Known about the structure:
single chain; alpha+beta; 3 domains; 4-stranded antiparallel sheet; 7 helices
Amino acid sequence: xxxxxxxxxxxxxxxxxxxxxxxxxxxxxxxxxxxxxxxxxxxxxxxxxxxxxxxxxxxxxxxxxxxxxxxxxxxxxxxxxxxxxxxxxxxxxxxxxxxxxxxxxxxxxxxxxxxxxxxxxxxxxxxxxxxxxxxxxxxxxxxxxxxxxxxxxxxxxxxxxxxxxxxxxxxxxxxxxxxxxxxxxxxxxxxxxxxxxxxxxxxxxxxxxxxxxxxxxxxxxxxxxxxxxxxxxxxxxxxxxxxxxxxxxxxxxxxxxxxxxxxxxxxxxxxxxxxxxxxxxxxxxxxxxxxxxxxxxxxxxxxxxxxxxxxxxxxxxxxxxxxxxxxxxxxxxxxxxxxxxxxxxxxxxxxxxxxxxxxxxxxxxx
Length: 366
């Protein structure tokens, strides 16, 4: 009975550890199966006087004239002063294997000096790829999350009222030519290239499909050939192997965001034997001028301002701490916290340790 319970507990621990590792679909992409970026230039109409100033934005005025001419309205000699039109850039992500008639979301961003796109309607705008091929057409009412309001003496703005979104606002008119089913294999691209992870991925796939099915070409690419049993079923093979779990490895790295004082360290970060001392120097300069004036009813003398400056220097020194041996991430953090350092001081300390050659990790400053 006791042995049965022990085996059950061991199986539960092993299952939990296995499920802690990421799936292949979470750390790698299938070559050719990707989104495609689309962009277009268009006009938004129906704004409540918050559009572009036509005198300041020549491209908006030219686009408005061109649009009206398509409807046989000639206004090139007219002095247009409408504030209900804005020139915009429309962006979208075309999903892989999107069929004709599929709808996708688009983002609309003001290009001129429009104050807000609230209540505007985007006129039919072609969306193109980098080569100028049109793949979708966007049109519809814009939903803006931000807003702005103003009065005679004050104004308020929340969010960004010059950027909006149209859900299902673009209609796919052209499909991308990519025949995945006709291939005899696939290439998996790791999102974080690493030799160890690539080899582990190939080993996991070979353990499932059979020896020789997968091969790690470099730290980024793992090739998988179509094995027996999956003839003309490449999609089925991809669906099966992307559920396999692999223990992902990564380099020891310290990422620092100096703007916010944020520090993120991987678990493999190590520090060799090093001594650390950190202190703060505070210099306070205070001015307390005094007024000197002659005695009452004096025949001579004048009132003068006599400067008086007081300077105090305070230096706070903390004890020197010694990190012995090659300590782990937890020991490093505990040691720095024991010195009572702030996150910004910790950034300086980590950079100094790296300069001394004692930090066995890369430092990346955002």
